[in-house]
Specification:
- With about 220 residues, this protein is of the alpha/beta class.
- It is built from ten helices and seven strands.
- Helix 5 (about 105-115) links the parallel strand 5 and strand 6 (about 120-125).
- The longest helix is centred in the C-terminal third of the chain and has 18 residues, at about 190-205.
- The protein is elongated.
Length: about 220
């Protein structure tokens, strides 16, 4: 991949700011979820739920929404009664890993407060909502009434785009052969790719070496 090819690839990517300098890359896998970002705060309902396996980019989507809405993110396992008034004052509340909830009554209270205050709510889950064993019927009916969007693990094209974008954010243009080489040898998740690119770039700078396949073989044993 030459410089012009890399730049063109970056121009063709539609991105949302996420986790500081990182961008949320949109593809056919996650475009339905991104529509909700497009139309915030004019959502047709209270909010939505994003379901998908670990590494599918749920946390990146949540972070993009947090940045866009100036909202608040919290993991379901960290919800506490003492925090309710503060967190439900946010225009957009994002609760990650709802399948790890500790209290159904607490979730129901949060849901009702967000409705009452006319704020927005997003959940993420590794499991389809229908597979979560809610015992409170009021909570179950409310959660099931929310639109559920399923996203899968990123495909090769999305992962390649993410690799190129991550390197470019650090001012590095790598050959297309390097991108293809990495795709076949690294964990196929958003989080892993971001960490790996950071490690590669750091060691490349420390050793004053260009990022090439021999460099990756020697330093990372990939």
């Amino acid at each position: 991949m030459n410089d012009s090819d890399s730049k063109q690839l970056l121009l063709n990517l539609r991105t949302f700011p996420s986790m500081g300098r990182e961008d949320y890359i949109v593809s056919s896998i996650n475009k339905d979820a991104v529509i909700w970002l497009d139309i915030w705060p004019n959502w047709p309902s209270l909010g939505f739920i994003v379901c998908g396996p670990t590494g599918s980019g749920k946390s990146h989507l949540a972070s993009a929404l947090k940045t866009l809405s100036h909202g608040f993110i919290i993991e379901a396992k960290n919800l506490e009664e003492s925090k309710l008034d503060d967190i439900t004052e946010n225009k957009c509340l994002i609760i990650e890993d709802i399948h790890k909830f500790k209290s159904e009554k607490l979730l129901l209270h949060i849901y009702n407060l967000m409705v009452e205050r006319k704020n927005n709510l997003m959940f993420t889950s590794n499991l389809p909502i229908s597979k979560i064993n809610f015992k409170l019927l009021d909570l179950k009916s409310r959660i099931l009434s929310m639109p559920q969007i399923n996203i899968g693990l990123p495909d090769d094209e999305l992962l390649k785009s993410l690799l190129v974008k991550q390197f470019a954010d650090k001012g590095v243009l790598v050959d297309f052969e390097v991108i293809n080489y990495l795709i076949k040898r690294i964990d196929r998740s958003f989080e892993s790719i971001i960490k790996m690119v950071s490690r590669i770039n750091t060691l490349s700078l420390e050793k004053s070496k260009k990022i090439t396949i021999p460099f990756l073989k020697n330093v990372f044993k990939l």
